[in-house]
Amino acid sequence: RIGCSEINKNGGAVMTSLYKTPVSRLNGIGEKRAALFARLGIKSVGDLINFYPRTYEDWSNIKHINELEYGETACIKAVVATSVNDTRISGGRIISKTAVYDDTGSIQLVFFNNKYISSMLRQGGEYFFYGKTSSDSYGMQMLSPTFAPAIKGTQIRPIYRQIAGLPSKSVESAVRQALSMLPSKINDPLPDAVRERFDLCPLRQALFDIHFPKNCQQLETARKRLVTEELVVLNLGMRNLRDHSRGVTSLKITKDYSEEFESLLPFTMTNAQKRAVSDCINDIINKSSPMNRLVQGDVGSGKTAVAASVCYTVAKNGFQTAFMAPTEILARQHYKTFQRLFENTDVKVGLLTGALKESKKKQIRKSLADGSIDMVIGTHALITDKTEFKNLALAVTDEQHRFGVAQRAKLLGKGNNPHLLVMSATPIPRTLGLIIFGDLDISIIDELPPSRKPVKTVLRTSAMRGGVYDFIRSEVKHGRQAYIVCPLVEEGELDDVASAEEYAADLMLREFPDIAVGIVHGQMKPDEKDEVMRKFAENEYSVLVATTVIEVGVDVPNATVIVIENAERFGLSQLHQLRGRVGRGSSQSYCILISDKGSRTTRERLEVMCSTNNGFVIADEDLKMRGPGDFFGHRQHGLPQMSIADFADTKSLELSQKIADYIMNRYGDIRNDEIRLLKAEIDRLFDRGGQNALN
Length: 695
Prior knowledge:
Layout: H1 31-39, H2 45-49, E1 55-58, E2 62-63, E3 73-80, E4 85-88, E5 94-102, E6 105-112, H3 117-120, E7 126-136, E8 139-149, E9 156-159, H4 168-180, H5 192-198, H6 203-211, H7 216-244, H8 258-264, H9 271-286, E10 292-297, H10 303-316, E11 320-324, H11 328-341, E12 349-352, H12 358-370, E13 375-378, E14 392-398, H13 405-412, E15 419-424, H14 430-436, E16 441-445, E17 456-460, H15 465-477, E18 481-485, H16 496-511, E19 517-520, H17 526-537, E20 543-546, E21 559-564, H18 572-579, E22 590-594, H19 600-611, H20 615-626, H21 650-667, H22 676-688
Parallel strand pairs: 2-3, 6-8, 10-15, 10-16, 11-13, 11-14, 12-13, 14-15, 17-22, 18-20, 18-21, 19-20, 21-22
Antiparallel strand pairs: 1-9, 3-5, 3-7, 4-5, 5-6, 7-8
Helix pairs in contact: 6-7, 7-21, 7-22, 9-10, 14-21
């Protein structure tokens, strides 16, 4: 990108790539300081130019001293009235004070532990001072302001991430040097046609203005260009990964049995389910490459029925399916579901988990190897070396964020380029999903079956907990069950397990001495957790106290209440996942959020939960309020590290998607010579993210 061995008409390199120029080549950066820059991830001059400010100080909006308000951060232009007075306090520390004035008044400046400040500020000199105001018994003061001689003029100052021994000012000085090494004309990864169509400024202008903008408009223009380019590069790179991970499949699945399967169901599929099934069947029958599809749907939207339809078509064409679930109990739950769905057909279903007796596992593996089992549901036992298939054509993973890429690849390795279907109940805004799951095609089930009753959600304070317990007791009296998600803990408090156990013990002794209460948490062994969940599913426990381990859990249609303590400590998407534990049966279900945090922002967040059951609306709100956070799950490590892009910036995500579409339509392939610099950027970004360069 910057100085990417720019080529003149004779084909000769006119400058060395700044990514190959060590930062130690800059004035004032010796071996020790270069080591400090390396700790910030800066090894070359190119890295430094791409080390964008973390924030800015706006020194262009000058305030008079008499306009200052307590607690505000502002910039003033003032004259130093007195010499700096240093006072030593305990521990050898220094407090330095001076007074400054303008035409409207004066203010005291206070600096902490800066022994050089007296030599940096000249009495009678005029400076800009930028800092936060406070007050003491002597009046208003400004604490440790940054400053510069007034002769430099008003400006927007960049503030860089810093470490001990390398303050922001030192980084700023080095960046100025680095930018001076840029030639007057640099090749731009984005072709002129793309920039002009989407109103993006040239790269050289963006690089200067992101570091040293003269005004807010320049900064915004530069930021738009750099953010958009980075997201376009990521978007194209993820598409390329998807296209080149597919190969060609020799599996010949020719007939669609989805209508026959639907006729077996005791209900009518929603239009969204039918669309998802159609997407999958089209991939399997009409494409030469294997299906690589994510079916994403809210809790209760009917993803399992979609998967069952696809599995049925695969089985009726004479091939096998492997369905991998993250836990033993979920595997058993799915096994029962598929047995019920296929009970009037000739499709044979098997179960393979680590908890089965060795003799039973041996029997199942034999049936998979000889083809007498058409579909197997299981856990990680499916990917052990002992498990072999006769003709595996479809691999399905449930709650895909629980599985790493390596586990998915190992399951696919059990067949000859089989089709892949992954399912997720974590709603993700579509544009963000196209980036995160760029190596997968996406089908979204965005409607619930008409029989599904929305969960009623209410917000309560801890003072109202007695009434909440009375309500739980009433539901239990009518034969129903309840979850209580105990408080998340913060640093310095009890750990989660101790908190959960203490909470459960208190409930058993005080509130529900006559009700069977179970407890489940993350530090229990898997078989212990499964046993507790089994007992709850079979109504041996009426109330289950749990940590967030139940976020993706067993299907208990009889559970009608979930109480979530300290609800403000969860993201909205996680709260929605927890709420999905109820509302699975025919009875009305309830979610009770308990929070004592009274801030307006907190209440607005939690009231979103009370106002809608639509996971995609909630996901959009969560993205706006908190950023992408939990959306990535275990997959986050697979994405390259961004320099400036923010996944919460939905406008930039949408713009980058349009530009990526435009580029692919115009140039056809990222190997097109006209966009070779863009291809180099893709290689560099993915190499930085720990991925191999894209070929």
